[in-house]
């Protein structure tokens, strides 16, 4: 049952009702058609459109700028100041936890838009809060989201937290696509679709996530959780220790691979052909049982799975998210940027602290076992800052610098592992920093 406090309902209803006065006639100036050589696969005309047409307006910065509909030969809608009020109401509703836990901001916006149009037409009697609760009750169910993860394979199915990983098998694809009713005219099309899915996904892993919410919110929750899980897994990949390696475990898109695509023309033979080459040719990760056990038993994985995190654990998890993005970057400067920002975000008190000395000292005293190790860590961290600065100006890396970066990547991983190992010992980031400072001055 979705509960919204009565005072919040009253405020939402009052603000939503006030939006009805923002409907106004809108003059739309059609954009002049651009002549290009792009391939056009088809055209949609007005006679092809069935039902009501609701057009979202897009601003100069690709932001939502209102919507329009046609009524009695006129174009009316909410835009300009009315759109600002509209967005504020959506944000107000999104701050109600019982709603935001199960509904995306897009769902809230679309529901408000639908209610306003019905009200404008005189076809809806309920208040907006009643309409929203009814619509949420209808749409919210338990859904499973299956997200394919490229460049993966596994010896066994496994789970990390609330994400289950299973292989996309031929039987799985066949069974799911053949559940729909057989229609003779669609059989051939279905077979083409099945074969396409097999070619693209078969043998890789699915990340499966289950939640109770409306469909768009479940998708958002699934991708957010998968991003965290993959951020943890990437830390145990070669890409987290080798400056020249890149991980293929990219959470927000299918296949994070860079290609060189070009056309060749041979003047002697007059042949013209397309050519392409992968820039990253070692992106596949195979999950052996031993690797799965290492990841699942790590303190970093346990931090992810912890239900009620304190402030320090939340800050540490945020830092790990930043740090892990370094594994997705091919450029060494980009890698160093994400590693250093991740470390700085958890080991510096504030923006005004001297960065290099404090960061290198805190890593050294947290990870170094003796004076020799600590001096070496300080030297390597400072060296990396120097390399990063030099790379901005010169854009190349010597073999000696490469070795320093490789050492630094291992130091960074040990630092985050140490922080995760001790995450139960501190309530805040400042408590952790104070504890390291105590070791330094003891």
Descriptive notes:
- The protein is α+β, with helices and mostly antiparallel strands.
- It folds into three domains: 6-32 and 48-139, no CATH class; 142-168 and 203-278, no CATH class; 308-441, no CATH class.
- The chain has helices at residues 6-19, 81-94, 97-100, 105-120, 128-139, 170-177, 184-201, 215-234, 289-297, 299-305, 311-324, 332-347, 355-367, 371-394, 399-421, 429-441; strands at 24-25, 55-58, 64-71, 74-79, 141-149, 152-154, 158-160, 163-167, 205-213, 259-266, 271-278, 285-287.
- It has a four-stranded antiparallel sheet. Strands 5-9-8-7 form a four-stranded antiparallel sheet, covered by helices on one side.
- A hairpin with a 2-residue loop joins strand 3 and strand 4 (74-79).
- The N and C termini lie far apart (56 Å).
- The model has no long low-confidence stretch (mean pLDDT 89).
Distance between the termini: 56 Å
Major sheet size, sense and barrel closure: 4 strands, antiparallel
- List the strand order in the largest sheet: 1-4-3-2
Q: How much helicity do the residues have?
A: 40-55%
Question: What Rg is obtained from the alpha carbons, in whole angstroms?
Answer: 27 Å
- Elements, N to C (H/E): HEEEEHHHHEEEEHHEHEEEHHHHHHHH
**Total of domains:** 3
Name the average pLDDT. Answer: 89
